[in-house]
Amino acid sequence: MLIDLKIKNYALIEKLEMNPSPVLNIITGETGAGKSIMLGAIGLLLGNRADTKLLFNQEEKCVIEGVFDISSYNLQDLFSKEDLDFDNQCILRREISPSGKSRAFVNDTPVTLDVIRKIGENLMDIHSQHDTLQLGDTSYQLNILDIYAGNTASMGNTTFDIYAGNLSHLRKYNESYRKYKKLESDYKKLTDQLAQAQKEHDYHAFLLNELEEAGLQENEQEELEEELKQLENAEDIKVKLTQAVQSLTESEFNITSALKDTAHVIGQLAAFSNKYEELRSRTESCMIELNDIAAELEDAERNTEADPERTLEVQERLNLIYTLQRKHQVQSNAELLGIQRDLEEKVGSVLNLDTAIANTEKAMKEAEKEVLETAAILSERRRASFDTFEQELYTLVADLGMPNARIVIQHNEVAPTATGTDEINILFSANKGAQPQTLIKAASGGEFSRLMLSIKYMLADKTALPTIVFDEIDTGISGEVAVKVGKMMKQMAQKHQIIAISHLPQIAAQGDAHYFVYKHDTEDRTISRVKKLNDQERVNEIAHMIAGANPSDNAYQSAKELLSL
Q: Where is the RecF/RecN/SMC N-terminal domain (predicted)?
């Protein structure tokens, strides 16, 4: 419930604070005094978009703050989900700077508008003239019927479970429906992929077969290019190798003979010093290395032969590799092998997709069966509540001045949607002998208001919203009906905190707390103010509501009588 409301620098409000009663609060005042402005401020507190044009002083920030007692609302999970500290008192605050920057806070922790909106939806239900028009919407009517039937406890965008620890019937259906739609979407994606894959399959298979037949090896290109260079220059290489061998072993002044003589001479000096022995050893090592080199050169020379057939074979192999690289726009065999692996995956994916599609289709059919089963239970509960809903609503509207009213719930079965397999339309007629029609066609503004109030009254014990705000729900009614509306609000307020903006003295007299909104003219501008009326001030205000600016003694007496009721 709302404990304290502060509004600063908003529209015509310079500074305002009120501490609502936990039961029925009435707000009255002249048209344009600022009652709807207060609702606009509360809307900002609950997450509505801000507009800097509404700043009272364009050089100061606007601050709207509400303190709520949430000790009995079971919102711990919601706070935990949003990573917020929970306390029995919750403070919501909005700040709008002159530059247009908007900030939101929950218990002094900065949050997004989405978060403050989620929490705000659990704290207040603002019923305006727009909501009265919503009553003509069939989806809104279905939502109302679900609350009444105990399938869920929701108003607006908020959904609560009635039975602690158990999923509500509607939520259970919603979960099965979401699961089914997810599988249906997955199935469509897979079938679309299969259709696309089948179109490309033959081409991919051709490319893969071409690469597989090529039998590519990762380092093959480099090895073949080196071999081709040797084959194409075999005669020149053979001549050079022969010259090298002769220089080492066969010429008149060959290196190996010279090293052999040198080692012999140094060996004769070894007896004179160890260092000569070391030099002799090193010389012999050089000689051994050169002999190895000469032997390898001889092997290379013997193995180097011009081979036209092998040259042609290597050239053809390299041409194949180069052609494939150009075709696939790559520079190496490693890249070609990567493309081959990708093609293997794509060609194989057609078979994998068949399996995935079969599995998904099976799961989708099972989910569809579950959807239809839960929808049937939900539909049965809805239809079981039709008669009692019609009768209870008729009893209430008859008591509010429509004794000849007829209310019929029209039901059609439809394909599964997010709300089930039911489509309903509340049909209404206010006059005897008139055929019930849709609310949009059959109900006037005043009838709409009385219908909405009656429905809210019926749902008061079933919805988890603690604070209900009525913005001029008394439109189009007067006299004894207005007295009954006021009493109905007072009864609702025994279980829900109610804040009602009204122009009717009959309703104003029912309030446990009465706030008066008025304009105050300063030297340079007009501002809105609000005051809580004492007993005598309430008599005066209600008398003015009855008779205008100059109420008679009779008006004052009528005001006292209304208050005594």
A: 5-521
